[in-house]
Structure formats: C-alpha cells, structure tokens
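Issue 218. Parser rejects a valid record. Input:
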Amino acid sequence: MILERKPDSDATIPPVPPVNDAPRSSFLSDHFAVLLVFAVFVLMLLVYVMEIHWSGNDTVTTWLQNKISDLIAALLMGLTGGAISAARSGK
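Output the parser choked on:
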C-alpha cells in the first residue's frame, strides 16, 4: 500500500515577509545624553553671564566657572565616546 500525501491547503498562500521590529533610530535618541549636557551647559552659561552683569559676586562666579568647565569636559567625553562607538559600529 502506497501512502500519498495530500496537498496542503496553505501551500497556495504566499509566505508573509518578516516585519522589521527593530526600533527606529533617531537623532534625539542617539544623542540624548550629549544634548542634555549641552542644554545644561547653555543654561549655566546664561546664568553665568547674568551673574557677571548683575551681582558680580566672585564666589558664585568662580563656582559657575568650575561647573561650566566640568560640563565642557563631559561634552567632550560624550562626543568622543559617541565618535568611537560610531566608528566601531560602522555608521
């Protein structure tokens, strides 16, 4: 006795292409940390300029200068780290 395979009823339906479930990359999501540090830097720079023009308190001005210096260092580290990771990933 020879068994014959019945044709599948699903064989006539073409396969569905896979859906790309990968999240889309955007500029904001890729560079969020750098943009956040830059926004804080700009805010502190504005406070620094206002402090120089209105009160001129040396203690506050020195503190703001140190914090702005720290933010510039953070920006440079973030940009350097982003450039290194982009170079490694081939973007």
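Fixed in the parser; the record now loads. The mean pLDDT is 79.
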